[in-house]
Write a structure and sequence with these properties.
alpha+beta; 27% helix; single chain
């Protein structure tokens, strides 16, 4: 039975790093379901948040293979109880007429998404939350109004507590 594995991977902030990490997953037949990358508070490093679904017996192997890459400085598994996670959603919803616009805005009160754009026939919303909450939000909008277009960032996570993932790593 496949389970979700979320990894925080600290890597050198240089070109080619994303390709090397992605190819490691590809060569071993693991699919990356979500991947976000950004420079950290220390410009020498980037943080990758990688989500994959695989059998639990593969977790240790994936972490070990990543750690072998010289560009990888640190790898940590992020479990739900030890981390905070969020995704960003931009969604353009069909909103023909005042009644539909008002219905979308009324539903949105439950979630608190920001209204980014209103046209004659659509409303564009920006929403952040967990993957499950975003899935629920999107499903309702699609079923009740129709979605014109959407884009999601994928999961971004940090470990709970004090300190930084880069604290014990030297550039």
């Amino acid at each position: 039975m496949k389970e979700k594995l979320v990894l925080s991977v600290l890597v050198d902030n240089e070109s080619g790093v994303l390709q090397r990490v992605a190819s490691l997953f590809s060569r071993r037949g693991y699919n990356i379901s979500s991947l976000t990358v950004s420079e950290t508070e220390d410009e020498a490093f980037s943080r990758m948040t990688i989500e994959t679904y695989t059998e639990p017996e593969n977790f240790r192997q994936i972490k070990r293979q990543l750690s072998k890459l010289e560009i990888v400085k640190k790898v940590a598994e992020l479990k739900d109880e030890d981390s905070v996670s969020s995704e960003l959603l931009l969604v353009k919803v069909k909103a023909q007429g005042v009644d539909n616009k008002n219905a979308i805005l009324a539903y949105n009160l439950k979630y608190g998404a920001r209204v980014l754009d209103v046209s004659l026939t659509t409303i564009t919303l920006e929403f952040t939350g967990t993957g499950d909450t975003i899935d629920e939000f999107v499903e309702y909008l699609d079923d009740n109004f129709g979605i014109v277009e959407l884009a999601r960032t994928g999961i971004t996570s940090l470990q709970r507590g004090e300190g930084s993932f880069t604290d014990d790593v030297n550039a």
